[in-house]
């Protein structure tokens, strides 16, 4: 199979982890006889520095031409400490999602048994946890009107959803639930928010079409609590952009570390595959970042964008084997990890 992949490392540790992701793609191409070609493009802070824009037109053109995109991360601490900055790295990420119609963000929370000791949650609560999150990605408070009033002393952001936006992500989640354990949890805040009442109405209207799937509704606050108390009660979870952003960071602790969580952003056209973690400038350049989220994102790309199931399984199997052999990056090292088995980014990639 011939495929063209755009690598967009972005900021901070993005370059380190996508380098490993690309090495894995090359290894798969060799092993299975595929031909993958690559290009690179800028986004985020590095793009602002080079062109003044967080998503240059050239990047967008290359994204549209690619069969899939391997993405790193965006962000830079200098903007976090400057609330007045008008141009920000994250704008590149949001604009990319909107321009490419990437409305569904799939975030699998897969706990590898070998990492049971990497989490601060008790093993008996964690063992067997396996959740697939669907985070809506092109609506909500991230894209609603926002403004400063009263000479800057008052601010608002608008949480807004249209029926069709909810329908399309909810349908994707129902379809996925059908292929798994046929349980769907929809998370909202319908006891307070009007946009959440619309969300719940839409889920309730669609549910009869998927009578084989058991549906439950949880408020975001209760879902956040249940995720830590009893993660096994969840199979597929569907929620809005903001709630999904927060809940999946929380859920990363089920998998042991943010460094283990891959994601796929899909919609009408191409797919973007990236770790859920950000640019992590505190560890950038130190060679200690965990590349496994990028590697597992490659597995999602092979499966979802290219339909290469055996290749995707080979990648997940390789991650499992490396963990079984005892190798860890420092974020997933547990009390029983031997110090010589704690590896840096490149060494982990080589395993
Ligand atoms: N690789 C994910 C990433 O770069 N995250 C940084 C970020 O700004 N995330 C906000 C979001 O996902 O909406």
From TrEMBL:
It comes from the Bacteria. PROSITE patterns: IDH_IMDH. Its main location: cytoplasm. It catalyses: (2R,3S)-3-isopropylmalate + NAD(+) = 4-methyl-2-oxopentanoate + CO2 + NADH. The keyword NAD applies. Its EC number is 1.1.1.85. Residues 4-351 form the Isopropylmalate dehydrogenase-like domain. It is found in: Cytoplasm. Its cofactor is Mg(2+); Mn(2+). Mg(2+) binds at residues 221, 245, 249. It holds the Pfam family Iso_dh. The record marks 142, 189 as: Important for catalysis. NCBIfam families: leuB (TIGR00169). Catalyzes the oxidation of 3-carboxy-2-hydroxy-4-methylpentanoate (3-isopropylmalate) to 3-carboxy-4-methyl-2-oxopentanoate. The product decarboxylates to 4-methyl-2 oxopentanoate. This is 3-isopropylmalate dehydrogenase. The gene is leuB.
């Amino acid at each position: 199979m011939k495929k063209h992949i755009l690598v967009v490392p972005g900021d901070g540790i993005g370059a380190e982890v996508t380098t490993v992701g690309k090495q894995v793609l090359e290894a798969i191409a060799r092993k299975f006889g595929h031909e993958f070609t690559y290009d690179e493009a800028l986004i985020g802070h590095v793009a602002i520095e080079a062109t003044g824009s967080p998503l240059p037109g050239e990047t967008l053109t290359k994204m549209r031409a690619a069969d899939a995109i391997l993405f790193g991360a965006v962000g830079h601490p200098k903007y976090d400490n400057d609330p007045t900055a008008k141009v920000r790295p994250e704008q590149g990420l949001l604009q990319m999602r909107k321009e490419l119609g990437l409305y569904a963000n799939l975030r699998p929370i897969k706990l590898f048994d070998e990492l049971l000791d990497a989490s601060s949650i008790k093993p008996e609560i964690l063992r067997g946890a396996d959740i697939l999150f669907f985070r809506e990605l092109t609506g909500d408070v991230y894209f609603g009107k926002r403004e400063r009033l009263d000479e800057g002393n008052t601010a608002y952001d608008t949480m807004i959803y249209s029926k069709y936006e909810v329908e399309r992500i909810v349908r994707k989640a129902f379809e996925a639930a059908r292929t798994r354990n046929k349980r769907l949890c929809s998370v909202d805040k319908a006891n307070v928010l009007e946009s959440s009442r619309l969300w719940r109405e839409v889920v309730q209207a669609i549910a009869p079409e998927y009578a084989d799937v058991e549906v439950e509704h949880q408020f975001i606050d209760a879902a956040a609590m249940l995720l830590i108390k009893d993660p096994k009660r969840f199979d597929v979870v569907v929620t809005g952009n903001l709630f999904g952003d927060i809940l999946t960071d929380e859920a990363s602790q089920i998998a042991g570390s943010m460094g283990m969580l891959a994601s796929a952003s899909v919609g009408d056209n191409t797919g973007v595959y990236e770790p859920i973690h950000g640019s992590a400038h505190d560890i950038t350049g130190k060679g200690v970042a965990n590349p496994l989220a990028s590697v597992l994102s490659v597995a999602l790309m092979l499966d979802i964008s290219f339909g290469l199931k055996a290749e995707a399984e080979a990648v997940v199997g390789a991650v499992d084997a490396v963990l079984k052999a005892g190798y860890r990056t420092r974020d997933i090292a547990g009390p029983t990890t031997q110090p010589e088995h704690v590896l840096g980014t490149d060494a982990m990639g080589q395993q």
